[in-house]
Amino acid sequence: MVTTTRRVGERVYQSHLLRRSYREDGKVKKETVGNLSHLPAHIIAGVRAMLEGKELVDLATLSTEQTLPHGHVEATLAMMRRLKLAAILDRAPSKQRDLVMAMIAQRILDPGSKLYTTRVLQQSTLPQELGIGTPAVDDLYEALDWLIDRQESIEQRLAKRHLHQNSVALYDLSSSYIEGRCCPLAMRGYSRDERPGSLQIVYGLLCDRQGRPVAVEVFQGNTIDLQTVNAQVIKLKDRFGVDGAVFVADRGMVTRANLQTLASAGIDWITALRAPQVQKLAAQGALPLSLFEQLNLAELHSDDYPNERLVVCRNPLVAQERRRKREDLLGATEAQLAPIAVRVAAGTLSGRAPIGLAVGAVINRFKVKKHFDLTIDDARFAFTRKSEQIAAEAALDGIYILRTTVDSQAFPTADVVRSYKQLARVERAFRTLKSIDLEIRPIYHYREDRVRAHVLLAMLAYYVEWHLREAWAELLFTDKHAPTSSDPVTKAQRSEHAQSKDRSKRTENGEVVHSFGTIMRELGLQTRNTRRINGTEATFTDVTKPTPIQQRALALVSELPLAL
To answer: Which secondary structure element, helix H or strand E, spans residue 372, and what is its range?
Structure first.
């Protein structure tokens, strides 16, 4: 069938001719069999399809048996295949490996408990894609047991991929609350979930410089930060065999014993001084505060820290915020002490002990008790601010001091600061693990090995999500072109490209800018449908045509350069 188009003035005419070719006297000739131009467009399309050898089915004879979300499954599994995650879990294919792959993917798609997972697995094409059928909750628990037995080998493969000689290793600690009372790891401790009365576990996350998770370790809930460092040294030196690594950790993990352990293992480190140590340096005159009226960054040496470099930073924005917050807390404390003074003056509250109890209930509610002088007698109560002490503390606002053993040639002063600030990437990992993205908490397992397996599973899910976020950076609010400031102390600035996305809420191609959650839901709108020809046993599947944003998201997964 031949379609011709011709224009006459402003009008366009189309002709649809049914033609045949034949040979006569050794020449090929063509003959018009019929003119189909008068027929409706759908009939012309049907004739064209039949001439092309396609089999037509009356849509009235079809019924849709099942429609399942598919696009988000395709994107997640495509990234997992690109990351060769199955081989990281175990070299040999097995039912347990497929179930673990399914649980990792499901935690990204729709996280929940293992029982919840069995209920929602069949609500997408995930079990079909992985060929796992309809697993029971006990099957998932057995897969968790299989996973935890392979934690060391999994972490070694990740470390081999992302931690190399002289590389930077970021380490930080967090906690999550746990339901029930039977788990031996569940203890009360410092809660980072702001649930001080709940039992919890503590876990430390080791990442490469870009924030990709490499290893995770679970500790009892009452473990303090500094007690977890030795285990990370053993991992880096003995298990991973990384020589010349630079260990970056928060100031709360630093003790003299920990630093000696790092030094004996030949591992350099970057951390920070605690507030009392900074105050001591200032009192000794080793910290010339007048210097930072002009500079934000300087390097000092002190006899108290031999063989170490001290990098002093001053952030004026942090200083301003701390002054504001301190004044607010002091004012709030005075507002709660004032009514007690009024009651004492009026005689409705008397006696040293009753007055002391009333004052004690409020004086440290905002953690500024140290800044007040209190006078309590049987019939008198007065409070005043310690002005000199407050002024001395305010002089150090915005100042923090990094300490490190790294060589100045390999790590100039600015690079020391930038490396320490990379700990923010571990904090982002914790936010993602705890948020609706991956929901590591609450933890319902009571067996110690299952709790450890649950945390490892969440870490592996974050490993996949980290790469998905990198692939979809142009579709998210992520800044792909963040400028490197010459002053690493100042607040990081977003590139003009990122600011444009923030203002317009549109990408360069005019698409709506998404969050990770909304782009996953957008992909989930692409479905795989199972159709049946009525009256027969014949079925077939088709996938809905992707929208431009779905098509771009799937393409970006295959375009992301990977460090494998």
So the answer is: strand 372-377
Q: How confident is the model at residue 533 (pLDDT cuts 50, 70, 90)?
A: confident
Residue ranges of the chain that CATH labels 3.90.350.10: 151-315+398-434
User: Residue type at 513?
Assistant: V
274-295 pLDDT, tens digit per residue, is: 999 999 998 888 888 887 777 8
> Terminal CA-to-CA distance of the chain, rounded, Å?
52
What distance in Å separates the CA atoms of residue 421 and residue 388, rounded to the nearest whole number? 32
The pLDDT tens digits for 546-561 are 999 999 999 999 999 9
Burial of 95 (0-12, 13-18, 19+ CB in 10 A): middle
The whole-number average pLDDT for the span 245-256 is 90
What are 211's two structure tokens?
Answer: 């924030």
Contact 292, 401 (CB under 8 A): no
User: How many other CB atoms sit within 10 Å of the CB of residue 495?
Assistant: 13
What would the DSSP string read from start to end of 242-288? --S-EEEE-GGG--HHHHHHHHHTT-EEEEE--HHHHHHHHHHT-S-
How far from 1 is each of 57, 132, 173, CA to CA, in Å? 21, 47, 70
Q: d(Cα 466, Cα 473) in Å, to the nearest integer?
A: 11
CATH, domain range 151-315+398-434: 3.90.350.10
pLDDT tier for residue 411 given thresholds of 50, 70 and 90? very high
